[in-house]
Amino acid sequence: MKKKKITMLLLTLSLAVSFSFMGAGTVFGASFDAKGDSASAPVSADSFSLQNSDPTETSVNAGGTLAVSGKTNVLINYAADYNKRDTFFVIKPAKSGALNISTLTSTHVSVNGSEPQYVNYNASYDWMKTITYGVQKGKTYKIKVSGYGTQINITNGDRNYYNKVYIDTAKFTGKAGKSERKASKIKKNKVRKGFVVKKGKAKYYKFSKRGKTVKVSFVAQTDDRIRVTVKAKAYGFRNYKMTSTVGRGYNVRTLKLSLHGKVRHMNGIIKVKPYKKSSGTYTLKYK
Q1: Which of 57, 123, 132, 161 could be disulfide-bonded to 82 (CB atoms 3.0-4.6 Å)?
Q2: pLDDT at residue 92 is higher than 70
Q3: Are strands 72-79 and 58-61 parallel, antiparallel or unpaired?
Q4: DSSP-assigned letter for residue 28
Q5: Are the folds of 56-171 and 180-286 the same?
Q6: Could you give the CA distance from residue 184 to residue 189 in angstroms, rounded to a whole number?
Q7: Per DSSP, what are the bridge partners of residue 231?
């Protein structure tokens, strides 16, 4: 059978997309769209009034360690010295899913030895205001907050320096498979939630559709990146494979597979796994 050229469209970002072809037949047409933000973030820190000087639920001296649970507002007291210090928080989540952290000042945050990432609620970009980690219920996590202090109550005569930290956990789970053979089936137009932990195992999902096209959407909230692999096959077409990472600042990916106007039954596998030391939450959907 005569081979057709691969049709590939890269939108918004210049991304490297890899294909794997086996057997004879026509090649899938694939367009890959990447966007820099998302209105469908799994969780938010809207309840945290970082800009005001209202008393917070608890406080800790800069350089100290504090055990927290659930939704917590913490005031870090730097006293008269605003210089950068490391403050630690220990939490054992009651729910599997998301661990969300926001800070008032320019801060670098890491959890259980993950790569430090910048967080600042007053940053110009929304994705810098909050950071999300994937966590397992009942496991102990140590949060390292490295930041400076700022004066927040000087009008009332308080010349001490502070940082504010918001810590929250949220359930964000959904059925997933442990291998391609045991992949969990996703229904058309139904959102499937999930999370991955640092150095955790991959999770697998499968989809099936009869038609000319299929569109797979992936939205992530992560401290760094999450790796996604999509495989698809249809009668008369060579098998398709794409692997990409979804980053903290570019957290939406939409992949459209086309059968060049032919109606076929398409079967696909989606593999989700953490990238290096990263973790996070995500949603999957296809139509």
Answers
A1: 161
A2: yes
A3: parallel
A4: P
A5: yes
A6: 15
A7: 241, 269
Burial of 267 (0-12, 13-18, 19+ CB in 10 A): middle
Cβ contact 190:9 at 8 Å = no
Torsion of CA 56, 62, 65, 66, to 10 degrees: 0
Structure tokens at 23: 């057997």
Q: Where are the domains of the chain?
A: 56-171, 180-286
Contact 132, 102 (CB under 8 A): no
pLDDT at 38 over 70: no
Domain covering 56-171 assigned CATH 3.40.5 in the classification: no
132 with 196: CB under 8 angstroms?
A: no
Q: Are 56 and 141 in contact (CB under 8 A)?
A: no
pLDDT at 232: 94
**Residue 167 has which token pair?**
């810590």
CATH class of 180-286: mainly beta
Per the CB < 8 A criterion, the answer to whether 56 and 74 are in contact is yes
Q: Phi then psi for 126, rounded to 5 degrees?
A: -60, -35
Mean pLDDT on 240-246: 90
Contact 276, 200 (CB under 8 A): no
Judged against a pLDDT cut of 80, whether residue 54 lies above it is answered with no
Tokens 């053979």, residue located: 181
The three-class DSSP label of residue 271 is: strand
> Which residue, chain included where needed, has tokens 């406080």?
59
Given the structure tokens 């939108």, which residue do they identify? 11
Q: Report pLDDT for 30.
A: 59
184 pLDDT higher than 50? yes
d(CA 16, CA 285): 22
